[in-house]
Amino acid sequence: MGFMLGDILESLGQPVGLRHCLVFAALLFAVGLYGVLTRRNAIGILMALELMLNAVNANLVAFWRYGPGPREALNGQVFAVFVITMAAAEAAVGLAIILALFRLRRTVNADEVNLLKG
Amino acid sequence: MGSVVFYFFAFAALACAVIVVTSRHIVRSVAALFVCMAAMAGIYFFLSAPFIGAMQLMIYAGGITVLLIFAVMLVRRAAGGQVEHASRNPGGAIVVVIGFVGWMAPAAWMAFGPRQMPPVEPRVAGVESLADDLIRHYVPAFEIASVLLLVAMIGAVVLTLRAKQREGPPTDDE
Amino acid sequence: MDLLSQHAYLIAVLPVLAFGAVLLLGQKAPGRGAYLPIAALAIGTVWSIYLCARIHSGAALPQGRLLWGVGSTGFYISFLVDGGGAAMLTMVCSVALLIVIYSQGYMRGDAHYSRFFAYLSLFSASMLGFVLSSNLLLMFICWELVGLMSYLLIGFWFHKPEAARACKKAFMTTRLGDLGITLAVVALYHEAGTLDLRVIFEKVAAGGLDTPMAFWIAMGLFAGAVGKSAQFPLHVWLPDAMEGPTPVSALIHAATMVAAGVFLVWRTFPVFAATADYALMPYCAPFWVALIGGFTALFASTMAVVQDDIKRVLAYSTISQLGYMMLALGCSALFAGLFHLLTHAFFKACLFLGAGSVIIGTHHVQDMRKMGGLRVKMPVTFWTFVIATAALCGLGIPGVVGLSGFYSKDAVLAAAKVAEYPGEVAVVLYGFGQVGALLTAFYMTRCVMLTFMTSPRDAHVFEHASETPRCMTVPLVVLAAVALSGGWAGHALQGFVEDHPGYRIESAESWLAEHGQATAALEEAQARAEHQAHRFVELVSFGCILAGVGLGVALYRGGPERADALARKPVLALLHLVLVNKYYLDHAWAAFVRVVVRFEIALAFVDYWVVDGIVRGVGWSTLRVMRWSWAFDKWVVDKVVEAFAWAAGGLGEVLRQTQTGSVHVYMTVTAGVAVAGVLATILGSVWVFAGLFGVCVLGAAGWHAALVGRRTV
């Protein structure tokens, strides 16, 4: 595999490269994923989702930064802008849905909302 | 020196993210999310994307976090002060997460060699070039994104609008 | 046509309304139910007198159609008032009016006082409808309604077993005759294609009916008339019908309903006349009418001689007089028959009401043997009774003047005398009538003697006897007045009934034109009889009446003892026995009924053991087959279906476990599958990838199914 603890320790001393950023983004995404999967509270799930989106954004910006030519790789930043836009919209609508759900069921616990149960 | 900045922000972001997904107090989660977003903005600055970093601060740290706080306060008030915020069923999630990290991190690590940060031309990385790109090459996407925002705004308003004349306990079709 | 003529049918409708109102209101109706019928009948009386005047003045006959039938069937409700009809209407309305007034006194204190008046009202309505109708169907309906009301009124005191038996007997006996009329109506519709009398008569006049058919139709109609008018074989119900209240006897069993049979023959006479070919004796319908009528006239009067119940004397007298009417009709003397019907209605109603007055005055004594000398106690009843008796006997001074019966009965006898039947037959018919007249004078004299003259035989009855109230005596006086003077209107009535260009006469005339010779001779003979035979008949009748009255007075001057002694003489004793037992006719009928019942029992036996046995056998075997079929269905077909259902249900039970409804589970599975899929690709194991892909597809399908199910539920 060529992937050992020594390599990691060694890389910490290296200047920050693309792979550092990618590993950071992967870890952040994993944390967000964990949150999405475990949080009972819908607001908590939403927050974890924001973490995952940020991990994606970090990836996009990193690929732009370390990409081939800055001129061509400017797309990454633009995508990041769109992702942020979408995240804002998603947060607004998601919170509105959560409030409506709360009004309806007096709860924001996702596992208490099991209307789809067969 | 640059590495230290990156690691500082990265560890801060990760630590805060862990707090966000594990804390039993939802307000604490939101606060951690705020710090996490700010740390992310630092990373963007570090990556020579000041505009994205600024947006991150404004939208995430400023807007979305405030929005979340409002939501938390509304729900807490209506639910009588306490909001259930415990985690559940972490076993399956841990397996999945370990699977993800165990695949993604080595893959990223191995796919891209030790690459130095290329020098960035200030003009290219600046707001002007970004704006030029957005308006020139990505106008349709830009317009669609703005429409999306508008729709989300109206949708949020409609979803949260309370029926005024309705009386009695809420029913399923409300 | 003026408004009153146009709506002449309302004469019959008004009593129906009165009936409904009294039935609904009960005791709360005006006069406890008496006033509404009285008002309806009073209006009807005035109205029908007006109609008479209109017709007399030569106006068009009142007629009209009220309801159209289905298609061209000719079943519709239509009415027509000709001269005879108008006279009948007047008679029915006025007699019914007087009797309803009288009933107020007679029925006083009865538990079902108002219902009685409701019944009387509906009866009058049916009778009027019968007279008004110009369609055989409506006539038949009214005919049956009249029979029904007769049943209800005879059995009005249904708690008396005799009354209950009598009403059943009356209904069943008349029903036997109604069988004939039903067949006749059906046959007539089959032959003529319509039941409209005018159309039928036109067809008959045009020779549309062949003789045997017309004969059987006529005999069917006559069978109905025999039942309703209590003629010879079917007369047995009328004496028993005296169990009903006396006003009922007066109205239904003397004046109107029993006259319905006569009126039916009178109305449909063109059908009878179509067979009046005397060369073919057995197929000559009028001959049978005359024979039955003449025989009944004599036959019933012999039985009246030995009756002790005052109402039964009058009942047999009524049968006898109805026989006279039939005799007249059978001799083609239509007017004589109708005339006798009208006069008889008044004097017989007067006699019955007088008898009712006696019954009330003596506190429900009907046996004449317990009466006697009542003329002192009940003078009004006595004098009206005597006048009506004289009218019934046909008393009068020949060639000068007489009571109403004098004119009508002599007209009947004269018609019989001159009837164009072969020699002996005509003599026999006339003899029946003449001997009957003698007996009539005798038994009526006996009745008057035993009831009012002689000395009181039962001191208790005599002591407590008293004259009846005003509302009962006034109708008596009115009826007696009509009985006294009714005959004087005979000539006017004859012109009125016969000369008017009504449909019936029109048809008869065209029929006469058609059948030339024989009827011309008949016409001539009738004209001859008017001038020559009438005087002879009057003289003979006068002699008979004097003889009858004289014999009666002589025998019963001192009470019934002398007559009783006479009845114990050897030959007379036998005769007396036969008469008291009504010629054993009731026994004969009972035997006949017993035979019929035996036959029916035998039929029931066959039905039960043979027909039912076959049916039961088929049913039993069908049941067996069905059991097997059922078992196959239950254990094979059903089990297969159930197995499928069970399999589907079990599979669903297993699969639904995957649908937790928890978003966490879904997300975990989704993320896990995605990660595992990517890992598998990287590791290069195609089989693992394929397996995971299958899991993905299954998961997506399950999810989709869950969504769809949710939506539909």
Summarize the structure.
By secondary structure, chain A is mainly alpha-helical.
What does the secondary structure layout of this molecule look like, with pairings?
The complex is a heterotrimer of chains A (118), B (174) and C (713).
Chain A: H1 5-13, H2 18-38, H3 42-66, H4 75-105
Chain B: H1 2-22, H2 26-46, H3 50-78, H4 90-111, H5 122-125, H6 127-136, H7 139-160
Helix pairs in contact in B: 1-2, 2-3
Chain C: H1 3-6, H2 10-25, H3 35-56, E1 63-67, E2 77-80, H4 83-106, H5 113-132, H6 136-154, H7 161-192, H8 197-205, H9 211-228, H10 237-240, H11 246-255, H12 257-267, H13 269-273, H14 285-304, H15 310-330, H16 334-361, H17 374-377, H18 379-393, E3 396-397, E4 401-402, H19 404-418, H20 423-451, H21 459-464, H22 470-485, H23 490-498, H24 503-514, H25 516-531, H26 533-556, H27 561-567, H28 570-580, H29 585-655, H30 663-683, H31 686-712
Antiparallel strand pairs in C: 1-2, 3-4
Helix pairs in contact in C: 2-3, 2-5, 3-4, 4-5, 4-11, 4-16, 4-22, 5-6, 6-7, 7-9, 8-24, 9-12, 11-16, 12-15, 12-16, 14-15, 14-20, 15-16, 15-19, 15-20, 16-18, 16-19, 16-22, 18-20, 18-22, 19-20, 19-25, 19-26, 20-26, 30-31
What is the tally of helical segments of chain B? 7
Terminal residue distance of chain A: 44 Å
Helix content of chain A: over 70%
Based on secondary structure, the structural category of chain A is mainly alpha
Tally of discrete structural domains of chain A: 1
Q: Name the helix and strand elements of chain A from N-terminus to C-terminus, one letter apiece.
A: HHHH
Q: Give the amount of beta strand of chain B, in percent.
A: under 5%
Question: What is the alpha-carbon Rg of chain A in Å?
Answer: 19 Å
Radius of gyration of chain B: 21 Å
Sum up the overall morphology of chain A in one term: elongated
Instruction: Quote the average pLDDT of chain A.
Output: 81
Uncertain runs of chain B with pLDDT below 50, 5 residues or more? none
What's the pLDDT, averaged over the residues of chain B? 79
Q: Specify which chain pair forms the largest interface.
A: A-B, 81 and 95 residues
